Protein backbone atom coordinates (compact mmCIF):
# COMPACT_ATOMS: atom_id res chain seq x y z
CA UNK A 1 0.00 0.00 0.00
CA UNK A 2 1.06 3.64 -0.40
CA UNK A 3 3.30 5.05 2.24
CA UNK A 4 1.36 8.28 2.10
CA UNK A 5 -1.26 8.74 4.78
CA UNK A 6 -4.67 8.72 3.13
CA UNK A 7 -8.19 7.77 4.05
CA UNK A 8 -8.50 6.03 0.67
CA UNK A 9 -6.55 2.77 0.10
CA UNK A 10 -3.93 3.25 -2.58
CA UNK A 11 -1.35 0.98 -4.14
CA UNK A 12 2.27 2.07 -4.00
CA UNK A 13 3.75 3.32 -7.28
CA UNK A 14 7.25 4.19 -8.48
CA UNK A 15 6.84 7.86 -7.54
CA UNK A 16 5.40 7.25 -4.06
CA UNK A 17 8.18 4.72 -3.37
CA UNK A 18 10.79 7.24 -4.50
CA UNK A 19 9.20 9.90 -2.28
CA UNK A 20 9.26 7.50 0.67
CA UNK A 21 12.93 6.75 0.06
CA UNK A 22 13.96 10.38 -0.47
CA UNK A 23 12.11 11.58 2.62
CA UNK A 24 11.92 15.31 3.38
CA UNK A 25 14.19 16.42 0.56
CA UNK A 26 13.57 18.97 -2.17
CA UNK A 27 13.43 16.22 -4.80
CA UNK A 28 11.02 14.18 -2.68
CA UNK A 29 8.72 17.18 -2.25
CA UNK A 30 8.90 17.88 -5.99
CA UNK A 31 7.99 14.31 -6.94
CA UNK A 32 5.14 14.22 -4.41
CA UNK A 33 3.71 17.52 -5.67
CA UNK A 34 3.87 16.59 -9.36
CA UNK A 35 3.06 12.88 -9.04
CA UNK A 36 -0.07 12.92 -11.20
CA UNK A 37 1.52 15.15 -13.82
CA UNK A 38 4.47 12.75 -14.07
CA UNK A 39 2.18 9.80 -14.81
CA UNK A 40 0.15 11.92 -17.25
CA UNK A 41 3.34 12.77 -19.14
CA UNK A 42 4.36 9.11 -19.16
CA UNK A 43 1.04 8.28 -20.84
CA UNK A 44 1.47 11.13 -23.34
CA UNK A 45 4.94 9.80 -24.18
CA UNK A 46 3.63 6.25 -24.54
CA UNK A 47 0.76 7.27 -26.84
CA UNK A 48 3.04 9.53 -28.87
CA UNK A 49 5.45 6.65 -29.37
CA UNK A 50 2.62 4.34 -30.49
CA UNK A 51 1.34 7.01 -32.91
CA UNK A 52 4.84 7.52 -34.34
CA UNK A 53 5.44 3.80 -34.82
CA UNK A 54 1.99 3.35 -36.40
CA UNK A 55 2.59 5.97 -39.09
CA UNK A 56 6.33 5.50 -39.61
CA UNK A 57 5.97 2.99 -42.46
CA UNK A 58 2.52 3.69 -43.84
CA UNK A 59 1.23 1.55 -46.69
CA UNK A 60 -1.97 1.21 -48.73
CA UNK A 61 -2.50 -2.22 -47.20
CA UNK A 62 -2.13 -1.57 -43.46
CA UNK A 63 -0.75 -4.13 -41.05
CA UNK A 64 0.40 -4.26 -37.45
CA UNK A 65 0.15 -0.99 -35.52
CA UNK A 66 -1.02 0.95 -38.58
CA UNK A 67 -3.95 -1.42 -38.98
CA UNK A 68 -4.81 -1.14 -35.28
CA UNK A 69 -4.58 2.67 -35.36
CA UNK A 70 -6.78 2.92 -38.47
CA UNK A 71 -9.37 0.62 -36.89
CA UNK A 72 -9.43 2.80 -33.76
CA UNK A 73 -9.77 6.03 -35.74
CA UNK A 74 -12.46 4.55 -38.00
CA UNK A 75 -14.42 3.25 -35.01
CA UNK A 76 -14.27 6.61 -33.24
CA UNK A 77 -15.21 8.40 -36.48
CA UNK A 78 -18.33 6.25 -36.86
CA UNK A 79 -19.23 6.59 -33.19
CA UNK A 80 -19.10 10.39 -33.08
CA UNK A 81 -20.75 10.66 -36.51
CA UNK A 82 -23.83 9.08 -34.91
CA UNK A 83 -23.82 11.81 -32.27
CA UNK A 84 -22.88 14.91 -34.26
CA UNK A 85 -23.49 13.98 -37.88
CA UNK A 86 -20.83 12.77 -40.32
CA UNK A 87 -19.44 16.20 -41.25
CA UNK A 88 -19.41 17.68 -37.74
CA UNK A 89 -18.29 14.42 -36.16
CA UNK A 90 -15.22 14.32 -38.41
CA UNK A 91 -14.58 18.01 -37.82
CA UNK A 92 -14.38 17.59 -34.03
CA UNK A 93 -12.95 14.06 -34.01
CA UNK A 94 -9.38 15.25 -33.30
CA UNK A 95 -10.51 16.68 -29.96
CA UNK A 96 -13.14 14.20 -28.74
CA UNK A 97 -11.24 11.20 -30.14
CA UNK A 98 -8.01 12.25 -28.47
CA UNK A 99 -9.93 12.91 -25.27
CA UNK A 100 -11.37 9.37 -25.31
CA UNK A 101 -8.01 7.64 -25.94
CA UNK A 102 -6.17 9.77 -23.38
CA UNK A 103 -8.74 9.22 -20.63
CA UNK A 104 -8.99 5.51 -21.46
CA UNK A 105 -5.27 4.96 -20.98
CA UNK A 106 -5.19 7.11 -17.84
CA UNK A 107 -8.01 5.00 -16.39
CA UNK A 108 -6.19 1.76 -17.18
CA UNK A 109 -2.75 2.93 -16.04
CA UNK A 110 -3.46 2.22 -12.37
CA UNK A 111 -3.67 -1.50 -13.12
CA UNK A 112 -0.07 -1.57 -14.35
CA UNK A 113 2.26 -2.54 -11.45
CA UNK A 114 4.13 0.49 -10.14
CA UNK A 115 1.89 2.98 -11.94
CA UNK A 116 -1.09 5.15 -10.99
CA UNK A 117 -4.24 6.37 -12.74
CA UNK A 118 -3.90 10.16 -13.09
CA UNK A 119 -7.71 10.35 -13.28
CA UNK A 120 -7.87 9.23 -9.64
CA UNK A 121 -6.78 12.81 -8.86
CA UNK A 122 -9.39 15.56 -8.85
CA UNK A 123 -6.80 17.99 -10.24
CA UNK A 124 -6.50 15.91 -13.41
CA UNK A 125 -10.23 15.48 -13.97
CA UNK A 126 -10.89 19.18 -13.33
CA UNK A 127 -8.22 20.07 -15.90
CA UNK A 128 -9.82 17.74 -18.47
CA UNK A 129 -13.29 19.14 -17.74
CA UNK A 130 -12.04 22.72 -18.06
CA UNK A 131 -10.50 21.86 -21.44
CA UNK A 132 -13.93 20.72 -22.64
CA UNK A 133 -15.63 23.77 -21.09
CA UNK A 134 -13.27 26.22 -22.82
CA UNK A 135 -13.45 24.30 -26.12
CA UNK A 136 -17.26 24.28 -26.05
CA UNK A 137 -17.48 28.03 -25.40
CA UNK A 138 -14.85 28.72 -28.06
CA UNK A 139 -16.83 26.60 -30.54
CA UNK A 140 -20.01 28.52 -29.71
CA UNK A 141 -18.37 31.91 -30.32
CA UNK A 142 -16.57 30.63 -33.44
CA UNK A 143 -19.64 29.09 -35.06
CA UNK A 144 -22.32 31.56 -33.90
CA UNK A 145 -20.38 34.79 -33.45
CA UNK A 146 -20.45 36.86 -30.26
CA UNK A 147 -24.02 38.10 -30.75
CA UNK A 148 -25.22 34.68 -31.89
CA UNK A 149 -23.57 33.07 -28.87
CA UNK A 150 -25.30 35.51 -26.48
CA UNK A 151 -28.57 34.98 -28.38
CA UNK A 152 -28.17 31.21 -27.96
CA UNK A 153 -27.47 31.59 -24.24
CA UNK A 154 -30.61 33.73 -23.86
CA UNK A 155 -32.83 31.09 -25.48
CA UNK A 156 -32.98 32.66 -28.97
CA UNK A 157 -35.45 35.47 -28.19
CA UNK A 158 -37.47 36.73 -31.19
CA UNK A 159 -39.64 39.76 -31.72
CA UNK A 160 -43.34 38.78 -31.50
CA UNK A 161 -45.36 39.12 -34.72
CA UNK A 162 -48.38 40.64 -32.96
CA UNK A 163 -49.02 44.37 -33.26
CA UNK A 164 -50.13 47.17 -31.00
CA UNK A 165 -50.47 47.02 -27.23
CA UNK A 166 -50.36 43.21 -27.17
CA UNK A 167 -46.90 43.28 -28.82
CA UNK A 168 -45.60 45.67 -26.15
CA UNK A 169 -47.10 43.40 -23.47
CA UNK A 170 -45.35 40.34 -24.90
CA UNK A 171 -42.02 42.17 -25.13
CA UNK A 172 -42.28 43.28 -21.49
CA UNK A 173 -43.23 39.71 -20.53
CA UNK A 174 -40.47 37.95 -22.47
CA UNK A 175 -37.59 40.25 -21.48
CA UNK A 176 -37.38 39.00 -17.86
CA UNK A 177 -38.02 35.44 -19.05
CA UNK A 178 -35.06 35.51 -21.43
CA UNK A 179 -32.86 37.22 -18.83
CA UNK A 180 -33.74 34.37 -16.49
CA UNK A 181 -33.01 31.84 -19.26
CA UNK A 182 -29.64 33.49 -19.83
CA UNK A 183 -28.74 33.19 -16.14
CA UNK A 184 -29.94 29.56 -16.01
CA UNK A 185 -27.97 28.73 -19.16
CA UNK A 186 -24.80 30.31 -17.70
CA UNK A 187 -25.22 28.30 -14.50
CA UNK A 188 -25.81 25.15 -16.56
CA UNK A 189 -22.61 25.71 -18.53
CA UNK A 190 -20.64 26.19 -15.29
CA UNK A 191 -22.12 23.04 -13.77
CA UNK A 192 -21.08 20.86 -16.73
CA UNK A 193 -17.32 20.78 -15.98
CA UNK A 194 -18.09 20.17 -12.30
CA UNK A 195 -20.23 17.12 -13.08
CA UNK A 196 -17.73 15.83 -15.68
CA UNK A 197 -14.78 16.06 -13.30
CA UNK A 198 -16.52 14.65 -10.22
CA UNK A 199 -18.05 11.71 -12.12
CA UNK A 200 -14.71 10.61 -13.58
CA UNK A 201 -12.78 11.25 -10.36
CA UNK A 202 -15.27 9.39 -8.16
CA UNK A 203 -15.45 6.30 -10.35
CA UNK A 204 -11.72 5.89 -10.95
CA UNK A 205 -10.84 6.63 -7.32
CA UNK A 206 -13.37 4.01 -6.21
CA UNK A 207 -11.98 1.44 -8.65
CA UNK A 208 -8.38 2.04 -7.57
CA UNK A 209 -9.32 1.91 -3.87
CA UNK A 210 -11.19 -1.36 -4.43
CA UNK A 211 -8.21 -2.79 -6.32
CA UNK A 212 -5.83 -1.80 -3.50
CA UNK A 213 -8.18 -3.32 -0.92
CA UNK A 214 -8.33 -6.70 -2.67
CA UNK A 215 -4.57 -6.73 -3.23
CA UNK A 216 -4.19 -6.18 0.52
CA UNK A 217 -6.63 -9.00 1.24
CA UNK A 218 -4.65 -11.30 -1.05
CA UNK A 219 -1.44 -10.49 0.82
CA UNK A 220 -3.19 -11.02 4.17
CA UNK A 221 -4.41 -14.41 2.98
CA UNK A 222 -0.76 -15.28 2.20
CA UNK A 223 0.18 -15.16 5.88
CA UNK A 224 -3.11 -16.66 7.10
CA UNK A 225 -2.91 -19.76 4.88
CA UNK A 226 0.91 -19.84 4.89
CA UNK A 227 0.92 -19.79 1.11
CA UNK A 228 4.22 -19.12 -0.71
CA UNK A 229 2.37 -16.69 -3.04
CA UNK A 230 -0.43 -14.19 -2.50
CA UNK A 231 -3.96 -14.94 -3.64
CA UNK A 232 -4.89 -12.97 -6.81
CA UNK A 233 -8.15 -11.70 -5.33
CA UNK A 234 -7.81 -8.50 -7.36
CA UNK A 235 -8.29 -10.22 -10.75
CA UNK A 236 -12.14 -9.91 -10.80
CA UNK A 237 -11.77 -6.26 -9.73
CA UNK A 238 -9.30 -5.66 -12.56
CA UNK A 239 -11.76 -7.07 -15.10
CA UNK A 240 -14.48 -4.84 -13.66
CA UNK A 241 -12.08 -1.86 -13.77
CA UNK A 242 -11.39 -2.49 -17.47
CA UNK A 243 -15.12 -2.34 -18.18
CA UNK A 244 -15.84 0.68 -15.98
CA UNK A 245 -12.71 2.51 -17.14
CA UNK A 246 -13.85 2.14 -20.74
CA UNK A 247 -17.39 3.26 -19.85
CA UNK A 248 -16.07 6.37 -18.08
CA UNK A 249 -13.89 7.30 -21.06
CA UNK A 250 -16.90 6.87 -23.37
CA UNK A 251 -19.18 8.91 -21.10
CA UNK A 252 -16.71 11.80 -20.75
CA UNK A 253 -15.95 12.04 -24.49
CA UNK A 254 -19.59 11.46 -25.46
CA UNK A 255 -20.85 14.24 -23.19
CA UNK A 256 -18.11 16.50 -24.55
CA UNK A 257 -19.32 15.76 -28.09
CA UNK A 258 -22.92 16.47 -27.09
CA UNK A 259 -21.96 19.78 -25.46
CA UNK A 260 -20.12 20.78 -28.64
CA UNK A 261 -23.07 19.71 -30.81
CA UNK A 262 -25.40 21.90 -28.72
CA UNK A 263 -23.33 24.93 -29.75
CA UNK A 264 -23.43 24.13 -33.47
CA UNK A 265 -25.96 26.09 -35.61
CA UNK A 266 -29.14 24.07 -36.16
CA UNK A 267 -28.64 24.00 -39.94
CA UNK A 268 -25.53 21.88 -39.42
CA UNK A 269 -27.64 19.09 -37.92
CA UNK A 270 -29.76 18.58 -41.05
CA UNK A 271 -27.33 16.06 -42.57
CA UNK A 272 -27.61 13.93 -39.45
CA UNK A 273 -31.36 13.48 -39.87
CA UNK A 274 -31.37 12.95 -43.64
So what's the overall shape? globular
Count of the separate structural domains? 1
Overall mean pLDDT: 84
Q: Count the DSSP helices.
A: 10
Helix/strand order:
HHHHHHHHHH
Strand content: under 5%
Largest sheet, described in full? none
Description:
With 274 residues, the chain is mainly alpha-helical. It has one domain. The chain has 10 helices and no strands. Helix 3 packs across helix 4 and helix 6 packs antiparallel against helix 9. It is globular. The N terminus is likely disordered.
Characteristic key phrases:
274 residues, mainly alpha, 75% helix, 10 helices
Topology at a glance:
Layout: H1 14-22, H2 26-33, H3 35-56, H4 64-84, H5 86-91, H6 93-109, H7 122-153, H8 165-224, H9 235-261, H10 270-273
In short:
The protein is an all-alpha fold and 274 residues long. It contains 10 helices and no strands.
